[in-house]
What we know:
- There is one protein chain.
- An eight-stranded parallel sheet has the order 7-6-5-4-3-2-1-8, sandwiched between helices.
- It has one domain (6-213): TIM Barrel, CATH 3.20.20.
- It has ten helices and eight strands.
- By secondary structure, it is of the alpha/beta class.
- It starts with 5 loop residues before the first helix and ends with a helix.
- Helix content is 48%, strand content 16%.
- Helix 2 (27-39) packs parallel to helix 3, helix 2 packs across helix 10 and helix 3 packs parallel to helix 4 (79-88).
- GO terms for molecular function: lyase activity.
- This is 2-keto-3-deoxy-phosphogluconate aldolase.
Amino acid sequence: xxxxxxxxxxxxxxxxxxxxxxxxxxxxxxxxxxxxxxxxxxxxxxxxxxxxxxxxxxxxxxxxxxxxxxxxxxxxxxxxxxxxxxxxxxxxxxxxxxxxxxxxxxxxxxxxxxxxxxxxxxxxxxxxxxxxxxxxxxxxxxxxxxxxxxxxxxxxxxxxxxxxxxxxxxxxxxxxxxxxxxxxxxxxxxxxxxxxxxxxxxxxxxxxxxxxxx
Length: 214
């Protein structure tokens, strides 16, 4: 914990801009998908625990890419998940919701912590519990305008919308005040993963990274 630099960690999230949410059917497919994402310019990689043996994937990617990517774990729902991901090399941890005991366990790993919220009350709880970034999920329910409305009472809270982020609206999310965006199915579609169509994932990564940079 003593070595954790929050400012540097937040800056790495801002620099990545797009965090790819990877839900793969196997560890091997997850690694190949991440290779395609990196080739396409997306360097924020969130390996979800719905991917079999997620810590193994994280460890392999950490050995392969080191600090050239922003690597983390998603769908973290237990203290053991948090510990295993951090031990494997995750730099950030993401939970779909916010629970006191889980948030405490995530913070104890000394990594950047992102927990999920949607309403103002949930956002306040996440901040009170110490979340470094609040994941607005599912962001598709309110769109960029909703994120912009949240920024008014919470101007200093880093917000990352996830769910419903597409190449067509990615610029609008940043204009509304997002620190970064989480992109799942529109960036890493399940059909491409199932079919091993990594060229399609790379194509989508180039599209997302281009739109996020503009």
